[in-house]
Please model this.
Amino acid sequence: MTDPTTDPTTDPTPADPDGTAAPRRRFCLRTRVQFGLIAVIALATMLATWQFKQAGDSYQDAVAEELKLQTAVQEVARYVYADEAPLAFRVAAAAARAEALGPLKDDGRLAASEFALAEQEAVAFRGRARPESLVGSDRYLDAQRGYDVPRRLGDQEERQPADQRLAPGETMAEGDRWALWGRVSLALAAAAILAALAAANVLRPEAWRIPPPSAGGPRRLLRGIDPVPQPATAPPDRRGGTRLHLLAVGLLFLLPLLQLAAAGGEQRAQAEASRHALRLGAAIVASGQRSAFLTQAVTASQAADIHAAAREIAVLYEKDSPAVSHERAVAAAETGHASRLRAMAEHMGRAPEAADGVSAASVAALRSRSEDWPGMRAEQNRHKELADAAGDRGLYLAAAAALAAAAEVLAAAFMEAGRLSRMVWPMGLAAVSIGVTAWALVA
Model:
């Protein structure tokens, strides 16, 4: 450090001989450049912090939107497939049975009785249903295939536009854009840090270090103020210690930037893991509702086929008579009706598509199968592991920053005391800090 009492470019007197105030002292160019780089580092770091905070908010909003969306998907699927579709299939099955037995109702009492029961069942249930329900409206009725359940699902979703039109994927993309800008700011801060470290090891021209005096007298400059240690201008015997001091300062500047990046990565991975968990849960519940309805409908068609076969077996060895012939005709009609029921079950329980007016989230959930769930669970676990790894990385970097702070304090103390022989201690701490940082970034 230069003594201002012997530095020809620094005047320690507070006033000129004529009693006027002395000109204000200014930092030398070297010091101003250092302060400029530190200002860039501080501003870029603060900007990156704000940008990553915006990214984290977007990620949390995406999780909240995903929760609302998947909850709506499950609720609509439950209402349509658990509350409305079973009754609709029963009404459609009764109407189809009445249609199959209609031509035989005048040929015998059996067909007439069965026809009346089926017809009254269909009429009664439809009459009691609300006009806006699946059964109460002809909007979804197909005379040959029953009711259009996926279309009903799409119409029900339109009644909840606030939830069904949420786009958590777009919100995640917005967070990714904020995170990208955050990384750009971190790169700017890192570039300023590297520039400061490089400049500290480069010997400046003589004109930068001792400017010529101005025309009005000697120039008043403040020297020896170095926020960043300057190995290039340090005395030869202190140059090694100054380089170590500079390394510790550089670590203190760089490690918080890496911690910010790790925290941003952890937030994103956690959000993705949560979204995958929500989608998996919705897929299991929603597809389970559809599968349960389809299974029940197919079982009903199989039961109808069994009943028809049993009726035919019951009269197989009976002597021919008008009653036996009539019962065989009823059995044949019921066999045809059972085949039609199977087609109805498959039509009403089919997986919805976008053409049915169903949202993409519902299509994905309702079309998922049990064999798809392990892959979805593995993807969720992958993002969880990424979040855990990013969290561990942040902890390691925090430990490395603590070690670098200790190294910087010791280096400054030993340099000030002139105990250069003890610089091995801050050197060891700096080496451990670098090792921990490398482990965090690699592992």
The beta strands are 26-27, 141-142, 146-147, 221-222. Residues 94 and 236 are 102 Å apart (CA to CA).
